């Protein structure tokens, strides 16, 4: 889990970085709002710990910029203890608000709670054998050759890659890709897998999508 701490007071920043690091988290520290904005635009974090009074951009402005981009959990950690400040922070989109001075044990408990609530970040890139998928660019290649897929084919392949090595039942595939309850008289899954194989497996010697009779399908490198 990666945490961005935005704190201009060096002693507090070092204390948080050390404590979170010892608790098993990867920590990045920004000393002002502009540095934090750059890091948020360039990287992905699982949680942002944010002071209000910052040079460059203050915490209120930075939170608004964050919320235009993502729903990453934000915990305000600030000396601003007025009720109206708490209300403002939560109304702008913060997930929690903790006032300084604070107990590190309470702070860590709130961090863990927010991280449990946040959905896992989706993977942006997959590679199995000579196949690569760039999720953000919607690009799939094998042996460096671009493969054109429909939206459903792309979603199906992404599911296989995300669950590499796991046998996925037809019922599970139907529920994930078509959001439907599986009807044994419907061959939509078989047809979709056949069409996907025709593009990503048939033109190549090394096959990646395999049928497990009576169970479903699995994508794995069996070399």
From TrEMBL:
<dbReference type="Pfam" id="PF00072">
    <property type="entry name" value="Response_reg"/>
</dbReference>
<keyword id="KW-0238">DNA-binding</keyword>
<dbReference type="Pfam" id="PF00486">
    <property type="entry name" value="Trans_reg_C"/>
</dbReference>
<dbReference type="InterPro" id="IPR001789">
    <property type="entry name" value="Sig_transdc_resp-reg_receiver"/>
</dbReference>
<feature type="DNA-binding region" description="OmpR/PhoB-type">
    <location>
        <begin position="123"/>
        <end position="221"/>
    </location>
</feature>
<feature type="domain" description="OmpR/PhoB-type">
    <location>
        <begin position="123"/>
        <end position="221"/>
    </location>
</feature>
<keyword id="KW-0597">Phosphoprotein</keyword>
<dbReference type="InterPro" id="IPR011006">
    <property type="entry name" value="CheY-like_superfamily"/>
</dbReference>
<feature type="domain" description="Response regulatory">
    <location>
        <begin position="2"/>
        <end position="115"/>
    </location>
</feature>
<keyword id="KW-0902">Two-component regulatory system</keyword>
<protein>
    <submittedName>
        <fullName>DNA-binding response regulator</fullName>
    </submittedName>
</protein>
<dbReference type="InterPro" id="IPR001867">
    <property type="entry name" value="OmpR/PhoB-type_DNA-bd"/>
</dbReference>
<dbReference type="InterPro" id="IPR006291">
    <property type="entry name" value="CusR-like"/>
</dbReference>
<dbReference type="InterPro" id="IPR039420">
    <property type="entry name" value="WalR-like"/>
</dbReference>
<keyword id="KW-0805">Transcription regulation</keyword>
<feature type="modified residue" description="4-aspartylphosphate">
    <location>
        <position position="51"/>
    </location>
</feature>
<keyword id="KW-0804">Transcription</keyword>
<dbReference type="GO" id="GO:0003677">
    <property type="term" value="F:DNA binding"/>
</dbReference>
<dbReference type="InterPro" id="IPR036388">
    <property type="entry name" value="WH-like_DNA-bd_sf"/>
</dbReference>
């Amino acid at each position: 889990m990666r945490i961005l701490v935005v704190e201009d007071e060096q002693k507090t920043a070092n204390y948080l970085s050390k404590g979170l690091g010892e608790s098993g988290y990867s920590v990045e520290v920004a000393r002002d709002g502009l540095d934090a904005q750059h890091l948020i635009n360039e990287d992905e974090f699982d949680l942002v710990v944010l002071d209000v009074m910052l040079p460059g951009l203050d915490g209120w402005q930075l939170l608004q910029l964050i919320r235009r981009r993502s729903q990453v959990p934000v915990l305000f950690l600030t000396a601003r203890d007025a009720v109206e400040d708490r209300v403002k922070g939560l109304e702008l989109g913060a997930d929690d608000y903790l006032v300084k001075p604070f107990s590190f044990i309470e702070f860590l408990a709130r961090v863990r709670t927010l991280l449990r609530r946040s959905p896992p970040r989706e993977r942006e890139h997959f590679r199995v054998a000579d196949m690569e998928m760039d999720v953000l660019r919607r690009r799939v290649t094998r042996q460096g050759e671009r493969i054109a897929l429909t939206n459903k084919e792309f979603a199906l392949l992404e599911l296989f890659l995300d669950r590499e090595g796991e046998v996925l039942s037809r019922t599970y595939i139907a529920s994930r890709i078509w959001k439907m309850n599986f009807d044994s008289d419907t061959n939509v899954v078989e047809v979709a897998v056949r069409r996907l194989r025709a593009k990503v497996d048939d033109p190549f010697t090394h096959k990646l999508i395999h049928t497990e009779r009576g169970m479903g399908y699995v994508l794995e490198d069996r070399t």
